Write the structure tokens for this entry.
Amino acid sequence: MWVKKVDTDLYQLQNTPFFAKGLAYLDVVFGKLENGRLMFERVKAPSRHSTYRLYVEAATDVSTAQALFDELNFLGCTYESYTGKSWELFAWDVSASVVDSAYEIFNKGEQQGIWSFEEGHYGGREH
């Protein structure tokens, strides 16, 4: 995870968490140095962003997902990707203002068999 120090033991997340649940881009968290490594303690100020992870099988041509990715990008969602041996993981950052629309797109891709997805963190809706 990438962070920016904002105060003593306080850090703001600067990327979308791939594997950590309960965290999202721009959350401000408490952290402590242990053996030269910064260790997460807890969230101080949630960003209200949500994190969704899409798993695409390696046999799936990612270009088949491009139209749905374009829809997500149009909403202002961004992603980072990680390639494993048999799959590719996309960690999507979704702001509170578009979470319902983005969720519909994630669900559509899963129903079409393009990917499976999970919610890593739900930050809420913008009212």
Summary: The beta strands are 3-7, 10-13, 28-34, 37-45, 50-57, 78-83, 87-94, 116-121. The longest helix spans residues 99-111.
